[in-house]
Structures are given as C-alpha cells and as structure tokens.
C-alpha cells in the first residue's frame, strides 16, 4: 500500500534576530509565534527548528483533511 505524501503548507519559519538567537514566526504576518503562552523568541537555532517543523506538520495535517 502506498501512502500519499501530505501536502506542504509552510506557514512558519525561523529567522535570526540577534547573533545566534532565533525566532519562530508566521511567514505571512511576520509575527513571532506563541505556544502555550510563550513567545518562541531568543532561542538557539536547533531549539527553534522543532516548533517550526511541528507547526508546519500540523498545517499539513489540516490540509490533508480538507
């Protein structure tokens, strides 16, 4: 059985705000992302990639349901 890939729906990315400090942001608004009441700012690059990937994955799941 073949599994179809999920549609890509990128809405979140990371950007360097200060030297070695990264922010997860919404690519259409530019706003920093808030998760459980915490802004996803001033993070190490490795730290910032996980929430961005997770949020994009969740968006892909929503697209697959449509």
From TrEMBL:
Protein name per the record: Uncharacterized protein
Organism: Candidatus Devosia phytovorans
